[in-house]
Amino acid sequence: MPKRILQGTVTSDANEQTITVSVERRFKHPVLQKTIRKSKKYRAHDENNAFKVGDTVRIIECAPRSKTKRWEVLEA
């Protein structure tokens, strides 16, 4: 099975080697036909602490690195 790749914005870089990425998805409501925006936060591994709040990054699925980290940064 291929690994998922998501794109989002860094919302936190407070922890060592970890960033929080907010990923937004848009879809049309099935009944109202209105475009809805939903966002979800993912914790991703950032080896060199290279990314800061506000950066746009791509993250990829990986094996679990900790209790909450299942993603790692692919590129900016």
Automatic annotation (TrEMBL):
Keyword Ribosomal protein part of the UniProt annotation: yes
Record Gene3D superfamilies: Nucleic acid-binding proteins
Family: Belongs to the universal ribosomal protein uS17 family.
Lineage: Bacteria, Pseudomonadati, Pseudomonadota, Alphaproteobacteria, Rhodobacterales
PANTHER family assigned: 40S RIBOSOMAL PROTEIN S11 FAMILY MEMBER, SMALL RIBOSOMAL SUBUNIT PROTEIN US17M
Assembly, per entry: Part of the 30S ribosomal subunit.
Full protein name: Small ribosomal subunit protein uS17
GO molecular function: rRNA binding; structural constituent of ribosome
GO cellular component, one term: cytosolic small ribosomal subunit
GO-annotated biological processes: translation
NCBIfam families per UniProt: PRK05610.1 (NF004123), uS17_bact (TIGR03635)
Function statement: One of the primary rRNA binding proteins, it binds specifically to the 5'-end of 16S ribosomal RNA.
Keywords of this entry: Ribonucleoprotein, Ribosomal protein, RNA-binding, rRNA-binding
Species this chain originates from: Roseovarius azorensis
Membrane spanning stretches: none
Keyword Protein transport listed: no
InterPro entries attached to this UniProt entry: NA-bd_OB-fold (IPR012340), Ribosomal_uS17 (IPR000266), Ribosomal_uS17_bact/chlr (IPR019984)
